[in-house]
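Lab manual, section 2.4: Encoding a predicted structure.

Procedure: take the sequence of the chain (520 residues), apply the prediction step described in section 2.3, and record the output as structure tokens. A sample record is shown.
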Amino acid sequence: MSIQQENIEKLVERRAQAKLGGGAKRIDAQHAKGKLTARERLALLLDEGSFEEYDMFVQHRCTNFGMEKSHTDGDGVVTGCGTIGGRLVYVYAQDFTVSGGSLSKTMSEKICKVMDMAARAGAPCIGLNDSGGARIQEGIDALAGYGEIFERNILYSGVVPQISGIFGPCAGGAVYSPALTDFTVMVKNTSYMYLTGPAVVKSVLGEEVSHEELGGAAVHSSKSGVADFAAENEQDGIQTIKELLSYLPQNNMEEAPVLATADPLSRVDDALNQIVPDNPNKPYDMYRVISGIVDDGKFFEVHKNFAKNIIVGFAHMNGRSVGIVANQPNVLAGSLDINASRKGARFVRFCDAFNIPIVTLVDVPGFLPGTQQEYGAVISNGAKLLYAYGEATVPKVTVTLRKAYGGAHIVMSCKQLRGDLNYAWPSAEIAVMGAAGAVNVLYAKDLISIENPEDKAAMADKKKAEYEELFSNPYQAAQKGYIDDVIEPRNTRFRVIRALESLAGKKQSLPAKKHDNLPL
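Recorded output:
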């Protein structure tokens, strides 16, 4: 055998060994936990045969605590590029079978390299996290590695889509990279995120809590809002990432791909003419409105289990990606609160960063009252949503279905926040407040002066009817040009699509500045 052939055989053998990560026993242990390996995850995520791996033979450089005696090619993370649905993406997947997936300086260098490559190529970057945290043996080098990753998350935010999949532990400083990315997918029962673990919580606070209770997928997708999606298993999580990408452009200079549809743009939905109840205090399901106007009734919801009083997600309208933001009358009457404001603002800003038009469906009676909301800074949190809409330069089409009261009307993409086309259904009520509250303010002295309860009630009813006559319809707003047209509900799909098409060439810029100062 020639030297060349021997060298080739050694290469093949070394590649095969590198692909085993921490070895067969640790792979079996990973499977026993109901988890896939890093390479198995990438095989599911990427188009078959498309993966190009980088830095397979990188090894750590640590010489402390006996680490110089143990080296594994790849050093606990698999990095490279591939395609999803034929579109280029850059990926990294932490390998828990190698040192528990702990982050070393060389691992961070591998991750930073693919992040830089993604930004240069203008392609999404997807990170699959499964790590015990910083590699303690490396001390400050490991912390510096995290800092390098975070800086790139920040620099490339709004440049290329960044998606995090949490498929195992993600603790301590490691949680900040997913928090800085655009979307985070967690897996129920096998993944968790927290800054301090159950042992620390117990020692400091004396509180007994499990990994799942402290930072599991259910907690972060419903209570904290840290996770956008909670997948049933890893296969479901990877499918969620792939579906999410289908709505997104490659980068901030491109538009999302157009998806062919057989759903006619002129399709009408007669059920929408009856969906708003006659009783203004009776709820209805906003999901039914969304499904009635988007292509094929298909809606990809984001943050489904968090702040359910507002709905956000992606859909296609006449084949083009749109972001949907809608109040949900079925939850808290559709009122805005701290979490709903944060959720909506984050989504609006993402859509604006990546050239995705925003369709807003409004039925909002106001902001949720109470000391809990005020002490929790509902003012500055509500301002985030207001700011996001006012700053956005993508096409913005707003449809007011029923209530749009007070500051909440302004916040939900009104004309004064540079809404491009603002429509209303005939059932729309656009006013400072509801009729009962308005009468109590406007006619307080008159009502107090009436001693007879029946006469007082009669006058209140009369004034309420007068106020409703004036404001419980969209025409006063339309007369002033704040509403561009009053439309028949059944035609909403057609009118919104035509509005979006007329705005396809929209060009709008912001005043020159270093950066804004969002009310965080």
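Check your result against the sample. The two ends are 67 Å apart (CA to CA).
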